[in-house]
Amino acid sequence: MSETLISFEPATGEELWRGPISNVDAEVEIARRAWPEWAAKPVTFRTETLRRFVDRVKAEGEAFADLIARETGKPLWEARTEVESVCNKVDISVKAYGERTPNRRIEGAMGLRNAVRHKPHGALAVLGPYNFPAHLPNGHIVPALIAGNSILFKPSEKTPAVGAKLVELLHSAGVPQEVLRLIVGGPETGKALAGHPGIDGLLFTGSARTGLALNRQFAGQPGKMLALEMGGNNPIVVWDTADIRTATILVVQSAFLSAGQRCSNARRLIVRDSLADALIEEVCSLTNRLIVDHPHAEPAPYMGPVIDNEAADALTESFLILMSNGGKVIRHMTRPLAGRPFLTPGIIDVTAMPERPDVELFGPLLQVIRVDSFEAAIAEANNTAFGLSASLIGGTPQLYDQFWANARAGVINWNRPTNGASSAAPFGGIGLSGNHRPSAFYAADYCAYPVASTESDTMRASIGVGLRDPEGSQLVLKTYN
């Protein structure tokens, strides 16, 4: 097995970064030794350390964005927004920690106090994805550090350079090197970290397949925290609207932003049959105008390549499978540059398919389903084992209320894209999309656990029933102080 991990730029194929594979046992031991001292620091100390981290990110923001763009293939403009999200996460997490894990004291009778405080879990593993290699793991790391945990962060093997840079910036801000450890390696390294007896929990963002394996692995370990965010097969429903142009923009943004590599991207367009032809024509017209190019191209592209050739090959194969099993091609998915993972967006009508695969097709591939009633639209939206995001475009407030009440998802939007979510709100899903551990503002919930205490400055106790008389054997009702 290779002892070095190498990262390549998807847009060019050039080597970007290389580093040695980590020794998981040694790294876990370091993090476990370090966390008690970090946890003993005042929360204000940990918070100020992370505020310095924001300053470090801003100072190197353009170089950081360039690295993200090169390693993921996403346009530079989009990489810059990811850097902004990394910075914004600290203030959001500080506020969330105060609101979600507050210290509470309730005065009781006879001088008793009831207190609720929160403790960190210990050494937490963080497994990061490749689509947002800085923002998404940062959304676990920052709240976990604020809570007092030590971190073993393994970035995706497809984006280790960004992960290494994120750790470097946190260390330069004052997070002790022993408290935050970078774990470099591929899937086997990830398995070793997830299965290590020395971790106290795992915070994961990635595929449902890996998430299910982790869920099985942790099933016999109720004492360990497991937070899963596993993507979705997300529906966008377009109903009665005269504004086809705006609806088109929302559909295209939902389906093709980030080359379709957001867990909240729309995978299924569910549209009222009477609107379908007009909407699809506009969607195709706008999609034809999308620029697909390398991250630094001029004019700026709307989307770059997918992460690598393996992902591009799988998406192309999925498109062919849909087409050969009853799907009607609306717009072909193509590979414009041989040997590189650029894809043009594909659109296919799967209404007539007898069995539609319920999988997350993680790329620029949109499936269209025509329906003739709103009840059928909701049924189609829920025709999935996933449950991350869903959007209704058009309709009335009454229809949105019906949609919100019946759509099974953790993020439900109206007249907004499926991938429009605020970091100041919880972000997570149900079913195959997550295990009821939403991230973003609610990440504080799984980074610390509550401890209830009853406290008194002086000792006071009595037994008022069931004692024998000290001078005989007769039971008496007598208080013993």
From TrEMBL:
Active site, UniProt feature: E229
Top-level class of the enzyme under EC nomenclature: oxidoreductase
SUPFAM superfamilies found in the cross-reference section: ALDH-like (SSF53720)
Key word NAD present: yes
EC number from the UniProt entry: 1.2.1.71
Any single Pfam family the record assigns to this protein: Aldedh
Alphabetical list of InterPro entries matching this protein: Ald_DH/histidinol_DH, Ald_DH_C, Ald_DH_CS_CYS, Ald_DH_CS_GLU, Ald_DH_N, Aldehyde_DH_dom, SuccinylGlu_semiald_DH_AstD
Key words of the record: Arginine metabolism, NAD, Oxidoreductase
Gene3D superfamilies: Aldehyde Dehydrogenase, Chain A, domain 1, Aldehyde Dehydrogenase, Chain A, domain 2
A molecular function GO annotation: succinylglutamate-semialdehyde dehydrogenase activity
A GO BP entry: L-arginine catabolic process
Domain (Aldehyde dehydrogenase) ranges: 4-444
Family label: Belongs to the aldehyde dehydrogenase family.
Family matches, as PANTHER family: ALDEHYDE DEHYDROGENASE-RELATED (PTHR11699)
Protein name: N-succinylglutamate 5-semialdehyde dehydrogenase
Gene behind the chain: astD
